[in-house]
Amino acid sequence: MFNFLKKSKSILIKMPFEGDVVDLKTVPDQVFSQKMIGDGFAILPKAGIHTVCSPCDGQLIQIFPTNHAIGIKSDEGIEMLIHIGIDTVELKGEGFERLLEPPCPLKAGQAILKFDEAAIKALNKASITPVVFTEMKLIKTISVHYGALKTGDVVCEITLE
């Protein structure tokens, strides 16, 4: 009856690694650009070796066998996918180093894996990294901060339903 008095809860999502944050629509893969599995943003990584850190407190629920994609569930129940590069599953783990084994608890900023941006590009794959929130029924709004950000900077705020 008094739902208008209920204050929406929001969570802050931090940058998993340094790069330029761009619109998900710019990702050269329709699954991501057309938001078929969820909404979010993408990161154009700076050159070099990157350590992917947890963007929030939660659980590491999956790392794909090829180490190119990570599944995380926040303490609030938001599921997200960090997909490093496009078609990088074809690299069969080359250029990636796993630092944790799922399932395990995560703190924001905790290192999960490393990847070599130059190795990905040398193998003719795009290094753009979609970060997609796949549990959209829990999300009311996503406000993304675009531009150059460093690891641990707040990249977006999610307002929960």
Domain tally: 1
Note the main sheet: 8 strands, antiparallel
What is the CATH domain class? Answer: Mainly Beta
Strand content: 35-45%
Shape: globular
CATH superfamily: Glucose Permease (Domain IIA)
Question: What are the low-pLDDT stretches, counting only 5+ consecutive residues below 50?
Answer: none
Across the major sheet, the strand order is 9-5-6-7-11-3-2-13
Structural notes for this entry:
Helix content is 6%, strand content 44%. It is mostly beta strands. It has a single domain, classed as Glucose Permease (Domain IIA). The chain has an eight-stranded antiparallel beta sheet with strand order 9-5-6-7-11-3-2-13, with no helix packed on it.
List the helices and strands and how they pair.
Elements: E1 10-14, E2 19-22, H1 30-33, E3 39-45, E4 49-53, E5 58-63, E6 69-74, E7 79-83, E8 96-98, E9 104-106, E10 111-116, H2 117-122, E11 129-133, E12 139-144, E13 147-149, E14 154-160
Antiparallel strand pairs: 1-14, 2-3, 2-13, 3-11, 4-10, 5-6, 5-9, 6-7, 7-11, 8-10, 12-14
